[in-house]
Amino acid sequence: MNDAIKKEAQRLQKELTEHSHRYHVMDDPLISDIEYDDMLKKLIEIEENFPQFSTPDSPTKRVGAPPLSAFNQAIHSIPMLSLDNAFNNEDVLDFNTRIVKILNRENIFYVAEPKLDGVAVELKYENGTLVQATTRGDGITGEVITENVKTIRSVPLKLHREKFKVPSLLEVRGEVIITKPDFDLLNKTRIDNGESVFANPRNAAAGSLRQLDSKITAKRPLDIFVYGAGEVKDLSFKSHSQMLNMMKQLGFPVNPHIKAGLSIEGVLTFYKKLEVLRDSLAYEIDGMVIKVDDILLQRQLGEKSKSPRWAIAYKFPAIRKSTRIKDIIVQVGRTGTLTPVAILESINIGGVMVSRATLHNEDLIKKKDIRIGDMVLVIRAGDVIPKVVKVIESKRKGNEIPFEMPLHCPVCHSRLVKVKLDITHVHKCINTSCQAQLKERIRHFVSKKAFDIEGLGKKIVDQLVEEKMIQSFADVFLLEKEKLAKLDRMAQKSAFNLVRAIEKSKTCSLRRFIYALGIDHTGENAAKLISERFSALKDIMDADKENLVSIHGIGPETASAVCQFFSNMENLNIISKIINEGGVKLTNDKPSRVESWDNPFNKRRIVLTGTLLTMTRSEAKKILEKLGAGITSSLSSKTDFLIAGNKPGSKFAKAKKLGIQILDEKSLTAMLKSHL
Ligand code: IVH
Question: What pTM, to 2 d.p., does this model score?
Fold first, then answer.
């Protein structure tokens, strides 16, 4: 019997040590907080009942993970303790009972504070100046991160001295955090820069504080709330709440949702309020910390090896849990983007039943190697859609099925395209008649800068799509007055006006038509440039990517999107229906003045080099662009002309070697004269 218990204790000690290392040092947990806490609770119970199985290095004796070795280390003058956890009201009432018993007095006053989900730090002020900042480390020794902490704007470098004589020593403790909006922005910028994203604000704060180069830390949106003191000289306070007030006056940010003067019942009521408040806060909190307010009573209660007897953390229900992926489906968004979604075995995460979680895109599924049948860690942060954090590979059985993105849209069965978005790829359905996108597409199609059909507002469009009177762009031009008049809220007169507006819109410029199609990356300007280059819709439909990128101002994304759009069979059918059945007539956009002349620079790729005498290089560039040329900086076999001024350098030799036509300034000005 004892043998089995010993084995179990050893197993828990080993596993918890490993998980604690992954969580605290690697920022890469394998199990949920609740699972960790459950295991720890089990081990504490065993070690309390069988002290012979408790070892000096058991995780129950540890406050955290060891500090990283790259920073200098400093010993905390007073250890930075951890907190015991309470998971329900009963645990909190037990905590109070213990205190009442030890102190032999009733009616203890408590302070309740949000438990901030960030990184604990200690700031040391000597004669009012910040001289050192440290992480908690293992509670005894921390890493010295002074330069990094100094970059946090809300940390005072000097104490405010209006109210107090400056203490010769003050150690302040608090939590460094990143707010949710700042975190979102930080990750967005990281995506734009092709960097990996942080899993949550706490990891982002920890990673930012752990930079060896404080210039990097300075760019991170770190913030702080202080909640305690270490060693203090020349300053005294009778209660925790009085100390917090002093901290405020000394210039430290103190959380505004701290409540003092609470009975134990008051503490429980406040917990409920904080739970409600939680999602509306700009930063993440994972529970509430309950502290005995009176400092003398705190001293009387004292500490255990890793935590004080006068405080406890009442944790919120975990927001991460593990469950199994039953299936992976694909959803089509309003703009045609496909999102793979995991169908989960339902679980309760923080009071909400979760049965689906977004998997974002195919790249992410591949990166995390997520398969159907996998046990996964799911996180729910506030109102946000639940996310699959990672696969718990140790639970793999071998019969899990890798996921394949479908080739066709699950809604309209049109063939999908794969496009690059920032650093990832997404699959898109580009069929303009796809039901999942139709409302959005039609709204754009009839909008002011497109077909500009007055009377076809959002509500009417939604109604027409819902009634199936519009199932594609072409149907807009086939609406009949009699049918329209039967719609809710549509009078005879407005039906008549609408039909008239539709008739009027049927004569449309090529530019507006291209814009109306809602091709990816093709806004007003791109539509203008494309329609100016090609005089007929047919030519645009036939253009290849090369033709399109040769237009100055058209990038490779737009060129690809246009080609893909016109290779989609459904789209080609609808365009033909718009023109043949809908009676839409496309007018030629007025060609720009220079393009109608036959000038030698139109549609040419030109490189400029050397110094020009009669104009600056940027003037030459402007003139040539007006004439339809595309100016590039690098020379290749695709270049049509090299315009060489004085001291042309290596490009001159390269152009000769490639057999590219070279124009000197004289020939250039002569040619320009005859064409301007
Ligand atoms: S008091 C002995 N107050 O929770 C008192 N801690 O599990 C210990 N924390 O390391 C700290 N918000 O990182 C305290 N209002 C708060 C807190 C808080 C977050 C963190 C802190 C500490 C951990 C203890």
Answer: 0.47
